[in-house]
Amino acid sequence: MRSDIGKIRTATLFGIIMLFGMVVARGAEAQPQVGLNAGFTNAWTRISASDVGYHRGWNVVANAGWNFDIPLRTPGDTSRSGLALSLIPGLRTQYLDIGPSNWLLDGSRYRAWNALGIGPEMSAGIIFAGPFAGVSQELSLDTAFLANFCNYTDTTLYTAYTSWLIGARYTVQVGARLSVTASVPVEFAARADGSSIIVGLSVGGRYAF
Questions:
Q1: At residue 80, does pLDDT exceed 90?
Q2: 76 pLDDT above the threshold of 60
Q3: How many CB atoms lie within 10 A of CB 13?
Q4: What is the 3-state secondary structure (H, E, C) of the chain?
Q5: 52 by DSSP, 3-state: which?
Q6: What pTM, to 2 d.p., does this model score?
C-alpha cells in the first residue's frame, strides 16, 4: 500500500514538472500574484474504528505564487483562441479554528483545536471567456502539502502534523489585476490522535502585479 502511494506521488510530481516545462518552453506569460480567502470549515476526525467526530469551524487562507498563462489553440487555428492554460506554483499559508466535536460513543467530545499551516502549493486550470466582454473566468485544481502547528484551544497543549490538500477553485476577473475567487479545499490531516478530513468553503480575492 505504501509503495502504491509512493508511486502515485512520484507520478504526480513528474507530471507537474513536465507541465511546468511545457509552459515555460512555449513562452508563457508570467506574473506574480497574491490571494486571500476566508470561510467556513467542516471536519471529521476518526477517533477509533467505530467512532468519528464531527466539527465546525472557520478558516483564513493566504497564498502567493507566480502565474504562468499559455494560450491554447484549436486544431487548424493559427491565431490565439480565448482558451488558456494556467499554472501557478507558490506558497500557501492557512489558519484553521475548529470547534469541539459532537458527543462520541463513550460520552466524551474530541476537543477543539486551531492550527497554522504552511507549505508549497500548485494550481492548474483552464481560463476561458467570461459572461461579459473583456472578462475572463477560470476553473482550476489546487494541491498543497502543509506542515501544521497545532494548539488545543484554551490549553497549553501543542502538537504538529502534516496534511495533503486538494481543492477546486472558480475565479472571475473583475478588473485588470483583481479577481474574485471561490474555493472548496479538501484536506487530509495525519493527526497524532486521530486522522481528520477537513472540508472548507471560502471566498476572497486575488491580485496580480
A1: no
A2: no
A3: 11
A4: CHHHHHHHHHHHHHHHHHHHHHHHHCCCEEEEEEEEEEEEEEEEEEEECCEEEEEEEEEEEEEEEEEEEEECCCCCCCCCCCCEEEEEEEEEEEEEEECCCCECCCCCECCCEEEEEEEEEEEEEEEEECCCCCCEEEEEEEEEEEEEEEEECCCCCEEEEEEEEEEEEEEEECCCCEEEEEEEEEEEECCCCCCEEEEEEEEEEEEEC
A5: strand
A6: 0.80
